[in-house]
Amino acid sequence: MSLELLLGISAGVLLLGVLAVRVSVRLGLPSLLLYLGIGVLLGESVLGIPFDDTGLTESLGLTALVLILTEGGLTTRWSAVRPALGLGLLLSTLSVLVSIAVAGGLLHLLLDLEWRTALLWGAVLSSTDAAAVFSVLRGVAVPQRLAGTLELESGMNDAPVVIAVVVLAGTEAISWTTPLLIVYELVAGAVVGVLLGLGSAWALRRAALPSTGLYPLAAIASCLLAFAAGQGVHASGLLATYCAALVLGNSRLPHRSGVVSFAEGTGWIAQIGLFVLLGLYAVPERLPAAVVPALICAAVVLLAARPLSVAAAALPFRVPWREQAFLSWAGLRGAVPIVLALVAVTEGGGQNQRLVDVVFVLVVLLTLVQGTSLPWVARLLGVVSRTDTRGVEVDAAPLDEVDAELLQVKVPPGSRLHGVYLRELRLPRGATVSLVVRDAEAFSPGGDTRLREGDQFLVVSTRDNREDTEQRIRDVDRGGKLVRWHEGRGRPSGRAG
After folding, report:
1. pLDDT at 245 over 80
2. Which of 37, 207, 306, 460 has the highest CB neighbour count under 10 A?
């Protein structure tokens, strides 16, 4: 295939993928189904593009997953996921073990699979998909605690699941040292990610790069480096990636808004490319034979493995049953189980091809069932938030010569900044609102200027007070003008003070 034809096809597929996002929103369908459909249409069975390289598909799939986890970490606000840290960690560790055990046991009985194979299938089915979760949560207004729990789980559970799949797909005997190695890989991966995230954030704050477009590139490269470093020390590169991105995304990064926007665009490209690639790899002629096993696996996941694994993780936190039910239904499966099935084929020396076909059909089924019904289930269970769960957007640009920073703030719909007079913001000393943009017109505000939804305003702050200034704006955004002032990086109390 010539270079111009390859680039033309790639550009066309990418444009179709972007348009598919718009179409999926209008139809209420998860966009990954359209991406998979594009891949199947391009495949050898329809338009005739041959592609059956399992190893290459696995490598490209893991690369896309690294970019998706990078986006998830960079766009996740620590203040939103911190209250859900304990539950999120248990969902990504304890729940994985419970899900593998329950699904493996039932599949051993229902499909007459050998025990190790049954547990391997259970491991592949136990991982929720970061791309699917991040995408669907954008359109479901649930409380930050639930959204943060799902974001943490989907961002962190890939690491232990990949390790479990590699162990179960191999031929080596499982010994008493295997759990110790798994613990080492997870702990070392998290440490590597945090250290590289902190180091990268420190370097980016002090690097006077000649172009603002270089900051997003440096941030993405840092997360890719975390993956390579994690794998290099025989730890979990996926967990290192997510931890590094989470640290970077919640650090005082210059031009943070540009970094996040670039990461979101990169994540979309990775999602589109991954799903199209998996659709291209699929063999439609083999899929009808996988329908019945896929239906059995879907029933096992939806009715037993996922609910029991959520209940086990939620037990120490006394999570209400309605929230447990929502967390159970929101365990979305996307491309990750298909990639894991390909890992199983590669590690198993070409075996487990049937698993790939079954998981492909199962992902389509569960996406149709869960992805389209999640907003309805949230309303049925009464877990829909009355306000927009997205926080106020604050971006910072450095003013190195005067040792200050410029904060750009946008007042989103539902924000309690609406109706607040500027003097009621009570910003710390050294910070002032210098400009307000309203209805495409800019003006210099005074203390009696009242903020409205949709306003954008600029705050100039000394570098020492930047964190307090940003935190104060976020506090008022969530708690209103009477929220108690917190010195430093505290959380809003929601009470007058």
Report:
1. yes
2. 306
pLDDT tens digit sequence for 124-146: 998 887 666 666 666 566 777 78
Q: Considering the chain, what is the average pLDDT of its residues?
A: 82
3-state secondary structure of 50: coil
pLDDT for 311: 93
Question: Which residue shows structure tokens 């025989």?
Answer: 234
Strand order in the sheet with 431-438: 393-399, 404-410, 456-462, 431-438, 441-443
Listed residue (127, 88, 70, 76) closest to 242, CA to CA: 70
∠ CA 294-298-302 to the nearest 5 degrees?
175
Residue type, 447: G
Residue that the structure tokens 């649930």 belong to: 142
Per-residue pLDDT, averaged over 85-97, amounts to 90
- Strand segments, DSSP code E, in 24-160 are none
By residue count, the chain amounts to 497
Residue type present at position 275: F
pLDDT (0 to 100) of residue 494: 40
Element (H, E) at 466: helix 466-479
